[in-house]
Amino acid sequence: MFKKGLAVALAAGLAASVALGGCSSNSGSPAGAGTQAAEAKQETKAPAAEAGQETKAPAAEKETSGQEEGAGAEPAGDLVEFRLVSPYDTNTSMLQAAQGFVDELAEKSGGTLKGTIYAAGVMGGEQETLEAVQMGEIEMTVMGTYPMVTLAPKYGFFDAPFVFRDKEHYFHAWEGALGDGVREIFAGNNIHTVGLMGRGYRHITSNDPINSVEDLKGMKMRMGQSTPFINAFTEIGAVVVPISLTELFTSLQMGVVSASEGPFDQIYSYKLYEVQDQLALSGHLYATSLWLTNSGFYDSLSQEQKEIFDTCAEKWLAEGTRLSDQAEEELLQTLKDQGMQVTRPDAEAIRQKALPAISKMFETDWTVTSMEEIETY
Q1: pLDDT tens-digit map of 187-206
Q2: Which among 57, 78, 285, 297 has the fewest CB atoms less than 10 Å away?
Q3: Residue 320: CB partners within 8 Å, gap ≥ 6?
C-alpha cells in the first residue's frame, strides 16, 4: 500500500522538483514548537498539527534535492541516492536544517551521497513514514518524538511536561544512558538514530494573567489526549478539559475554556491572540525532532561516507536547534506585537507542583528510570 503511494508521490515530486544549491543556512519563517505525539494522529487536518506545530504547505511543491556537482571534494565511494521524508513543511527549522545537511553532504562526499527531500507529508504522516523507514521503503526521516512514544513507550518521559528543567537538562539526559536506551530500542526496530535537534518550549495562554502557580488553580485549560499532560496540569490545580485542537479557538472564544498550552507557532497559527491576551512563559516542555535512517541504508555506506554523513549531521542538528531558538525569539515578538501581554511566572515552582503526578508515571509507565535519577542529569 505504501509502495503504491510512494510511487505516485515520487512521480509527482519529480515533475515538480526544485534543485537547491549551496550549503548555507537560512532562518526563513519563524518556527517554534512542541509535541504531544499521541494527539498528532488525531489532528491531521489542523493548520499546524500539534505533534509538529509547524504549518504545512501544498505538497506538490515540497520536493528538494541536494547539490548535483559535489564540487571541491573527491568521490567518497559509489553513488548513493536517498530520500529524506518528513511530514513537516520546508519553512520549519527542522527542514531548513535538513536541506543544509543534504546540500553539504553532497558537497563533502564529492557527489556520492545525494539526498532528495520530500516534505509537507507528501508520503504520509509520522506513522506511515516511520513504518516505511523500518521496512527500508524510504531511507531517512526528520520528524517529532512520535517514534519514542510508540516504539519506546517506557521512555515516553522524553515527550512529557515538567520532567526536564530546561533544554540543557533534556540534552544531558538524551546524551547519556537514558538516550542510549532509546537508541538501542530503535536499533532493534531496524532504525539508526542520526541524532536529535531542539524545536522550542511550550507555554500557557489565558484570559487572566498568570504570575504564579497559584493563578493556575481552578483555571479551565484546554488539553489534548496526552495522559502526562492531563495528569500534570490536574495536579497543579487546573481544571483540564480535553478538546480537539481544531476546536480550540472556538472553545476559547465561547468561554468553554479560559486557557490553553502550546508552542509559539501553535499560538500564532491558530490566532489565539484574537481571543486571549495573556501569555505565561512556563516552558513546561522542551520539544525536539528526531533524525532517523533505515539501519540497512546506513550500514550500506562506505566508512568514509559514514564519517562524512555523521559530521554533516552533527553540524546541521546543532544549526537546526539554533534556528529554532531564533524562530522562538521572532515569534514571541510577533505575539507581543499582536497585543499579548507576557508574564514570567516561576517555572520551577510550577514544575515542582506538577512533579507528584509525573513521579507516579515513572512507577507505572516509565519504569526504566525514576524522577530522582532524571534530576541527577
Answers
A1: 999 999 999 999 999 999 99
A2: 78
A3: 93, 94, 96, 97, 98, 197, 198, 289
Tens digit of each residue's pLDDT (9 = 90 or more) over 80-92: 999 999 999 998 9
Between CA 291 and CA 313 the distance in angstroms is 9
Distance CA(33)–CA(181), nearest Å, equals 25
Strand partners, 205: 260, 279
* The pLDDT of residue 44 is above 90: no
Three-state secondary-structure class, residue 290: strand
The answer to whether residues 133 and 204 touch, using CB atoms and an 8 Å cutoff, is: no
CA dist 301 and 304 (Å) reads 8
Asked if 232 contacts 352 with a C-beta cutoff of 8 angstroms, the reply is no
**What is the value of pTM for the model shown?**
0.82
Q: How many residues does the chain have?
A: 377
Task: Express each pLDDT in 199-240 by its tens digit.
Answer: 999 999 999 999 999 999 999 999 988 999 999 999 999 999
Task: Classify the phi-psi angles of 111: left when phi > 0, otherwise alpha if psi is within -120 to 50, otherwise beta.
Answer: left
Cβ neighbour number for residue 79 with a 10 Å cutoff: 11
Q: Where are the beta strands (DSSP E) in the chain?
A: 18-19, 63-65, 80-85, 113-118, 140-143, 191-206, 220-223, 239-242, 259-263, 278-294, 341-343
As a whole number of angstroms, the distance between CA 268 and CA 204 comes to: 13
Closest by CA to 148, choosing from 374, 368, 376, is: 368
| Residues 268, 220: Cα–Cα separation, whole Å | 21
The Cα–Cα gap between 366 and 364 comes to: 6
Report how far residue 191's alpha carbon sits from residue 143's, in angstroms, rounded to the nearest whole number.
13
Separation of alpha carbons 71 and 163, rounded Å: 46
